[in-house]
């Protein structure tokens, strides 16, 4: 979801990584493949970078990403 100011927060995706689980999530079976770096939460200007949505993650992948955000900000269940 993009804010009214065009800002989003997301994780970088790379094809090469030396980071092990649970700090990375492998994407496969998507339009984009690679490793989501769950320790690298970044802010982006979606509008300035002409961002577009190309695919969606599964419910399981979304749960893992949300868990990583909670861990980063220490919002524990």
Summarize the structure.
With 77 residues, the protein is α+β, with helices and mostly antiparallel strands. The protein has one helix and five strands, in the order βββββα. The radius of gyration is 13 Å and the shape is globular.
The averaged pLDDT comes out at 84
**Termini separation:** 23 Å
Number of helical stretches of at least 4 residues: 1
User: Tell me, what's the shape?
Assistant: globular
Count of individual beta strands: 5
- Percentage of residues assigned to helices: 10-25%
Low-confidence stretches: none
Overall structural class, as computed from helix and strand content, comes to alpha+beta
Architecture blueprint of SSEs:
Elements: E1 7-10, E2 13-14, E3 24-27, E4 34-37, E5 42-45, H1 59-72
Antiparallel strand pairs: 1-5, 2-4, 3-4
